[in-house]
User: What shape does this take?
Amino acid sequence: MQEEFSKGEERLCERLRLSGEEAAAFVQALRSGACARKAVVLSPRAPADYAPPFACEPADAYPWLPPRVFIPAPGAAVTAHEDYRAGLYYALDLSSCWESAALDCVPPPRSSLDLCAAPGGKTMLLAARYLPADHTANEVNAARRGILRQNIELCGLPGTTITGLRPDQWGASGRVFDLLLVDAPCSGQSLLAKGLRNPGCLGAPMVNGNAKRQRGIMLAAIRCVAPGGHLLYTTCTYDPEENEKVVSYILRRHPEWQAVQVPCLQGFASRLADFPAYRMLPVQGVGAGGFACLLQRMG
Ligand SMILES: C[S@@+](CC[C@H](N)C(=O)[O-])C[C@H]1O[C@@H](n2cnc3c(N)ncnc32)[C@H](O)[C@@H]1O
Assistant: This one.
């Protein structure tokens, strides 16, 4: 390990089992703060033949890119256009689109619950594929729920129900869905790669605290999935404790659950899991990074 790494950086590189060269490139990307990549997803308001009113990069380099997602060319004024204010498209991080790519492997659900939904990115990405007639976007934080509501109304997702229950309340509700999205609150280590401050995010207290919360959320979430249904677990952080280990905690205790292969993410397969799981680091040029694991409850 190089001497000039901070304790947190060194700890994270070890936990990610990066070689010396990989660790140097990873830390350099983190410190650059320049790895954010923007994307836009067309909303249901945009006609089928709609194209964004700014230059976009060709999508061929991203075989996992979800439908109706575009990558603005550098410098494109994405949020300055009136189509944005009219809700024809929603702006988000490219990593968030990458995290949702596993939805490719899920048959169109009749019902879905986005458990940690604000400000609404994953719900928009689901709607770009197929928004079930019965979709619930849930957010526990009242202020963030207000923003979620505004975004959903602006982008025209009329059938969506907005709720503010805690995961344990959902778990006890007896309701089940074909698809659950758990875009979990996390230590947000990828914020560093976007040039944002996130003090303590590499330290054990923040990582372990989040992992504990994520295990609790997942234990409740799996109770809300119908037999045969799917759950997509995603985060925007790197530490395995909040990613592979959360999933493995669930798989060990609940043998009726299995992780599902996602062919379009094959190049991102995690080497830290003995089940299919996918992680993207900022050195891969697709954004600040993220983790995704698609789970299925056996029928
Ligand atoms: C990563 S963000 C979700 C981003 C959103 N899915 C999107 O794509 O726009 C995680 C969300 O979980 C919420 N949250 C925080 N603590 C929570 C908890 N204990 N249970 C459920 N959600 C929680 C946060 O308020 C935050 O809105």
Summary: The chain has a mean pLDDT of 96.
